[in-house]
Amino acid sequence: MTLPEFQQYQLQFAGHIRDPQIKPKPAMVQAKRMRVYTQIVFNNLVSSVSACFPICKKVLGKRAWKNLVREFFIQHQCKSPLFRKIPEEFLQFLKTVKGTPPYLYSLAHYEWIELAISVSETGGNAEQIDAEGELLDKQPVFASAMALLSYDYPVHKISPRHKPAESLAEPVHLLVFRNAEDDVRFIELNPATARLLHLLQDGAMTSRQALEQVAAELQHPNPQAAIQFGMGVLGDLQQQGAILGGKV
Amino acid sequence: MASISNIQGTGLGLKRELIPQLQASYGTSLIAAIDFLEIAPENWIGVGGRAGKNLAWLAERFPLAAHGLSLSLGGPDPLNETFLQQVKQFLDRYQIPLYTEHLSYCSDGGYLYDLLPIPFTEEAVRYVAARIHRTQDILERRIAVENASYYVAAPISEMDELTFLKAVLEEADCDLHLDINNVYVNSVNFGFDPHAFLREIPGKRIVYAHIAGHDQEAPDLIIDTHGQDVVDPVWALLKEAYALFGTFPTLLERDTNIPPLPVLMKEVNYIAELQLGQVPRQLLAS
């Protein structure tokens, strides 16, 4: 079925805005006025994307960054009507694009997660939480907006002066969460703590059960000492607001 | 249930930058003229954390009007009904009685996040009107559509903007969100008399209005940035509109180059001053 004339025009009009070098503007349209759209729409998109990815922009440099956003505009069909999801759409595009530095996707994800955690709507914690009592034989409850992440690049240390040449031998583990003041915090975790938090994350295990399992997996010579040490780590995470308390 | 009569008088478009100042001056005479705030659902749907708490705080204290950005009423893609359901829940949750959208499009298979002009053709009138009908069905309320600013006249247009606007309002049987600044912007960009345009507007459909500043790029080109103070010819149009049709809820939009709240309030206060002693259009209509 052929589209009505006004829709053919609209598609051509929008296509030219996305890719003015290749796609012609509709016939008889004033070039000077058309440029108002090609500039404004692209500049607004660049602003929206750049706001979430300042480090990506810096490490690539202004020109390469703009070219990348232009490729995004040309190639990616954004499916979300919500403006705050533009960075997520950009992230999807980065997954598919070729010719960017290998660490770029990880870095972009690290920048995006801060925004995502800061605004994520969690609905609060449904469970009753004991914020005071001993955590050892309880299931720890985490801040409702949180994520456990592993990256193959040291994303938290990348800058124009520190661009990783290759991936890490061991991934870097990060815990990101929103605290009671609604500030987003990042904590770097060692592999054992990352494993511990993964076990505890879905709320099925008590601290003791998870610590015993980690100690066993590590073939720790002194499980009792490992549990004691692990409880110290969990207490510290509770102090920082990543753990709210124990499930009642 | 919030009713549309909750939206009256003068309002201010909510920008995140303004929230701390609004919270600090709540209850003071500085912002006494703010009768309501306007938000874009696209910026707030599904937002929690500090931003979500701020919205809840404001919603408890001010009537809210919703002004959409992404519905793409004139767009070639199917109407995004999943999104409309989200809008409906959002309006219900924050007790928002009024939802308006632009007479424009912003998608071509994907979203472009900007407002593009619809060619003024008979087919487009029927197409847009049908989508407004569907929107009103899903939202279970009347909506108002806004006359949009634009920069490129479509050579395939079969009528002028005013004829198109009136035809859509008539065929869709929806309300008008009159953007006074856009009338002026388009009159400069396309060389027509804004006062003559205003006099032909179906006044009985006006439920809401915007006023804003813009950037004059050239004598014959204005960019609708909402980034400057409102200019005198636009104030004159608002005055004339009140005289012609009675007053209607009127909101100041400022989206870029945002001055401190006390500076913005001068313009909000001026809207209130113009409304003083005038008869609300709703009373004239009944």
Summarize the structure.
The complex is a heterodimer of chains A (248) and B (286). By secondary structure, chain A is mostly helical.
Report on this structure.
- The complex is a heterodimer of chains A (248) and B (286).
- Chain A is mostly helical and 248 residues long.
- Helix content of chain A is 50%, strand content 12%.
- Chain A folds into two domains: 1-100, DNA polymerase, domain 1 (Orthogonal Bundle), CATH 1.10.150; 124-248, Alpha-Beta Complex (Outer Surface Protein A, domain 3).
- In chain A, strand 4 (172-178) and strand 5 (184-189) form a beta hairpin.
- Chain A is elongated and about 80 Å long.
- The model of chain A has no long low-confidence stretch (mean pLDDT 96).
- Chain B is α/β, with parallel strands linked by helices and 286 residues long.
- Chain B has a single domain (4-285), classed as Divalent-metal-dependent TIM barrel enzymes (TIM Barrel, Alpha-Beta Barrel), CATH 3.20.20.
- Chain B has helices at 19-24, 49-61, 81-93, 122-139, 161-172, 180-190, 194-199, 232-245, 261-275, 281-285; strands at residues 10-13, 36-39, 64-67, 98-102, 105-107, 111-116, 144-146, 175-179, 206-212, 215-218, 221-223, 250-253.
- In chain B, helix 4 crosses helix 5.
- The chains are: A mainly alpha (248), B alpha/beta (286).
- At the A-B interface, helix 1, helix 2 and helix 6 of A face helix 2, strand 6 and helix 4 of B.
